[in-house]
Structures are given as structure tokens and as C-alpha cells.
Amino acid sequence: MNEGKQQHKNPIPTVDTIIQKDSQVLLVIRKKDPFKEKMVFPGGFVNEGETVEDAAIREVKEETSLDIELENILGVYSDPSRDPRGHIMSTVFVGRISERSNNREPMAGDDAAAIKWIDLGDIEEESLGFDHKKILMDYKEWKQSKQTYWSSKK
Amino acid sequence: MNEGKQQHKNPIPTVDTIIQKDSQVLLVIRKKDPFKEKMVFPGGFVNEGETVEDAAIREVKEETSLDIELENILGVYSDPSRDPRGHIMSTVFVGRISERSNNREPMAGDDAAAIKWIDLGDIEEESLGFDHKKILMDYKEWKQSKQTYWSSKK
Question: Given the DSSP bridges, would you call strands B68-77 and B88-97 parallel, antiparallel or unpaired?
Fold first, then answer.
């Protein structure tokens, strides 16, 4: 461990959340670069003083208006080349829509231009931003395996 | 998501790894503050350009001389008060000792003053540094549940 004052640079932490309803997964269309107009999971940067779980819930609320509960961690993705802005790692949660949001349609907000529900059966042909396609493929496997995942996991 | 240049401060990412052999878990005695002389999991800061999985393997090697393979992610712990140096989050892996290190005794190195094997049955009475006692209790539960964990998870 590098002790005391941090002399080294470190990856910057983000969170993303996978929310499935029936056979579909909730994605948002990005309003800005990088990956402007691409589909991604709702998510964003973790603030200092905020836990990753609180950041995940806050980002879904900001981008989709939905209240969620977190169920599991799918994995932690930290390949240095996964984000063109720099070394940005993501803790990816699996969540579900809370009771109180259950009958509400999500509304795009903040950095999300629109909401997109994608059928899990159709994802092979879809193009997603960042490494979210790989994450979605890992999620499909996770539904059977209940393992956890990371960027270089075989 | 805060786009472009990061204006906000973010938690600093670390990794820790739980390695069990027979009924015992591998801990190291810290050489320095914070938690000097306390037992903790081998681990440390993730460097920019390094994945969390590579950081976990590197830190175990530096602190215990052992080669390991990673099997799963136990959880991500990011309570802002878990480390007195600042907001430091940890991705916690479960690993196993690699074939080639299997018959070797671990040797303390780097920031580890000594190696300590603790029987999982005895951990209730042990005192660990940081939030590693909580993490070890979650690990005991994980062995049954195969769920994932985070700081505020009930």
C-alpha cells in the first residue's frame, strides 16, 4: 500500500446499474460525448463522501426518475481503455424498480436524452457505449451463473 | 454524470483480497499507521492504468510473496469513514493460492510486518483494522449465500 499522502494517480470511480423488467433492460441514450447518442446503463461518477450504492441509486433517479433498490453487484470493470476520458472504473450493480415507482414510466433527465428498453434476446445486434455491451453479455451469463465479473475475466 | 473534466473529488480506489486455506484466512500485520500492528487483508491502492484485478494480485504478491488467482468479488466497501486518511473505497476479491505457490509459506513484505493465519471459527474475538472485521463477517455469510456485499447492505 502507498501510505499517507497519495503520490500516485488512481482510477476514478463510477457506478452503473442494470435494471430488468420482464424480459427488458433499461438503458438511456447519452446526451453528450463520449458516446453521444449511444445507449448505456444509467450511471455516473461517485462523489467524495458518497457510497457507491448511494451514487448508483442517485444516478438512476437523475437519469430515469425511477426509485430503485440494489440487489447485487455484477462486477467491477476497470480496463484503462474502457473510457476515452481517462482511467475510469465502474462498479456495476443489478437493481430493481422500487414498489413506489413500479407503475410509473421512466422519464429521461440529466445527461440522458431518452429512455430505451431493450429486450435481452435482442442485445447481440445492439451497439452500446463504453464497455456496456460486454457488461450486458456478462449480465446474461450472470443470470445463470451468479458469479461476479471484471474486465479481464475469461 | 459529471462530464468532461472532473470538477468533483472522488473516492480513491483500493483492493483487498480474502484468501482461505483449509479453515484459515490469510491476514497481514500492518507495519504503518493507520491501524499499525493491526491485522488486515493484503491489499492496497489501485494505480492509474492498472485494473483492480491486477492490483489485487500485485498487492498479495508484494505483501505475502504468494501468487494467487481471483475467484469472485465479495463486495465493494465505500463508507466514507472506513479509512481515517480520507474517502477510500475497496473492491474486495476472494482468491486462492496458485498451484505454484501452494506448498510455499507466505513471507511478509512491503507494508506487511508479518503474516497471520486466523481460523474462521475464531474471528468473532479478533480485532482487525479498517472495516475488515465487517468484511470478514460478510465473507462468512457469503460462503453460504454467494451474494455480494457493500458498506450499508443490511
Answer: antiparallel
The label of the residue with cell 491485522 reads B39
Q: How many CA atoms lie within 13 A of B28 on its CB side?
A: 28
Other C-beta atoms lying within 10 Å of the C-beta of residue A4: 10
Take residue B71 and report the three cell numbers written for it.
475467484
The answer to ipTM > 0.85 is yes
First to last CA, chain B: 27
d(CA A133, CA A140): 11
Q: How many angstroms separate the CA atoms of A97 and A42, rounded?
A: 13
Q: Express each pLDDT in B111-123 by its tens digit.
A: 888 999 999 998 8
Compute the C-alpha angle B52/B53/B57, nearest 5°. Answer: 115
Per DSSP, the residues of A23-88 read: TEEEEEEESSSSSTT-EE-SEEEPPTT--HHHHHHHHHHHHH---EEEEEEEEEE--TTSSTTS-E
Q: What is the pLDDT of residue B8?
A: 67
Q: A32 and A108 in contact (C-beta within 8 Å)?
A: no
Contact criterion met (CB below 8 Å) for B33 and A114 = no
pTM above 0.90? yes
Q: Which site among B5, B52, B60, B130 would you substitute to test the A interface, given the most A Cβ atoms closer than 10 Å to its Cβ?
A: B52
- How far A110 CA sits from the closest chain B CA (Å)? 8
